[in-house]
């Protein structure tokens, strides 16, 4: 009886143990690094007493994008995000000069200006160029979600996003930045990952691998 029990246990272990010959499938987004080219204007800088401290700002954005990376990874896309540059730009945000929206930021023209500037920088195609601004904009906050490029990541076109937010040094509020990052990466929704998203990012992964082999 003991011998029969031993054989049953042995067989169970044999059939349930994972085969060493099996090669795990690559995780979505693995080996993909997003290079964050971070820019901010005076309205964003003015939301914190530390806004004029360049060391503080660099550390702040590094922490923000660490949290963005963690958030995107939790959705099943294992990209890494590296902050490549942090700088203040006073003239990228385009403002209305008159009319109802006098002095408010023109979101669409600001995005176009950001894209043009990003193209002139000639960064690698795995870069996203961010402009952080506190506003106010000429449209409600919900509509500023549209201020990003579409289907540009890892293409010959510059990827860019205008992020409407403020400095939150105690909480490192990152959700707006994460939302704009996922939308710029091509997610259909910033809160969930669709089958179409998975296919799209699988193609990006293959393309980056081909570029790496060519190098």
Automatic annotation (TrEMBL):
Residues 1-21 form the signal peptide. Keywords: Signal. The keyword Signal applies. It comes from the Eukaryota. This is Putative conserved secreted protein. It comes from Rhipicephalus microplus (Cattle tick).
């Amino acid at each position: 009886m003991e011998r029969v029990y031993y054989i049953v246990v042995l067989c169970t272990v044999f059939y349930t143990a994972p085969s060493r010959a099996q090669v795990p499938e690559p995780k979505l987004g693995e080996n993909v690094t997003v290079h964050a080219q971070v820019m901010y204007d005076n309205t964003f800088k003015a939301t914190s007493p530390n806004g004029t401290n360049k060391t503080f700002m660099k550390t702040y954005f590094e922490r923000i994008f660490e949290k963005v990376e963690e958030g995107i990874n939790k959705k099943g896309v294992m990209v890494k995000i590296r902050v490549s540059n942090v700088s203040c730009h006073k003239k990228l945000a385009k403002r209305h000069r008159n009319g109802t929206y006098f002095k408010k930021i023109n979101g669409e023209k600001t995005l176009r200006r950001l894209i043009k500037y990003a193209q002139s920088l000639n960064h690698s195609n795995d870069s996203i160029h961010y402009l952080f601004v506190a506003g106010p904009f000429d449209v409600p906050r919900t509509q500023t979600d549209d201020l990003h490029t579409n289907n540009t990541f890892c293409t010959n076109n510059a990827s860019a996003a205008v992020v409407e937010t403020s400095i939150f040094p105690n909480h490192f509020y990152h959700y707006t930045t994460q939302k704009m990052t996922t939308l710029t990466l091509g997610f259909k929704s910033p809160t969930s990952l669709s089958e179409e998203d998975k296919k799209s990012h699988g193609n990006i992964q293959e393309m980056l691998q081909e570029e790496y082999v060519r190098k």
